[in-house]
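Final report, closing paragraph on structural work. Over the funding period we assembled a curated collection of sequence-structure pairs, and we close with a single example.
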Amino acid sequence: MDVTPIDRYSQGKMAPEGLQLGFAALDVKEIGRGVREFAIALEGEQKAFRRGSQKSRR
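Its predicted structure, as stored:
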């Protein structure tokens, strides 16, 4: 699975935030694996963000 920041395609001063996910070169099995790995990565980031938010509240 290919993951590309969409600000790469921006020409203006305000770059949009987000990701473009590419699946075209993959078979069904590889897509499933990529989606699972991406979900694990996002969960890790979410946990880290929550820990950081809790520290700033103290």
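The longest strand covers residues 2-5. The chain has one domain: 2-57. We thank the funder for supporting this effort.
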